Structures are given as C-alpha cells and as structure tokens.
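Annotated sample (chain length 77).
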Amino acid sequence: MASQQPPTATEWLDTFDVMKLLKCSRPTILALRRRGLLRAHCFPGGNRVYFDRAEIDSILRQNVVMENGKVDNTYRA
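Output written by the structure step:
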C-alpha cells in the first residue's frame, strides 16, 4: 500500500514580499498580474492580495523578470 503524503500548507506572500523576491517595484508586480504572469489570490473579508510562494518559485525557475517588467523566458540558468 502506497503511503500518501499529507497536503502541504501554502505559504502566502503579500505584495511587499514578492517585490523583495523579484527585486522589482509595486507597479511591476501589478503589470505582471495584468499580463497573467502572476496570479493573485484574495480572501473573504480582506482587501489585500496574496501570492502563492510555490507559484513565485516556479516563475523564478522558469523566467527572468527584467527591470522593465518584461519577462525573458529564453534565459535558462
């Protein structure tokens, strides 16, 4: 019988945390959200948006976000 892994808890980041990780500004985060490159999550009763840490890590592994907010997905480390 295969053992099942318990679901991992999602680590939620706010906009400021994402700005630090991606080393970019708030308008750049907004531009990436509008272009569909970052998915924001809202929770009932609040007016803040949060980002899934696993999604941010995946974006960092797959793409390079340049200073102008454009994504260069041709670069591979």
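Annotation: The longest strand covers residues 49-52.
Annotation: The radius of gyration is 15 Å.
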